[in-house]
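Protein details
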Amino acid sequence: MGLTAPAAQGTVSADKGIAAMNKKAGWVWIMLGALSAGIAVFCGALGAHLPLDGDPLQAQRARWIDTAQYYQMVHALGLALAGSLVLYLPGRLASLAAWSFCIATLCFSGGLYLQAFADVSVGPVVPLGGGLFIFGWLMLALYAGKAVSSASSQS
């Protein structure tokens, strides 16, 4: 009996440590989502003021910026959602979704911004980012399915 009490105290202490890490990680994901949304607005504003002058390349750049900022904004909100889930209902799938959205935004939107603003082609990085966006949403769907299954088995 004397051996189980310290283990139980250690487990409680470890659980508090994990909960504190989840809380911090959740707030970091929410903060990154908010920053990403702000950057999307900024890049969209820059793109809206590109001089088109009938140049097809400028029109293409404007479309790249439009696409990049749209996907960045949508996934900034997805990142904030995943961060909220990590904060209040921690789970590995929500964390995977947050990581996926973050890396996908850098690849997809970042790649399109590089093409539009710096005339730098990044090859397969943009489609990789698109795949990561899909992966992130699938992780959130699995997370929700797991939560529904858990809730129905408890009732």
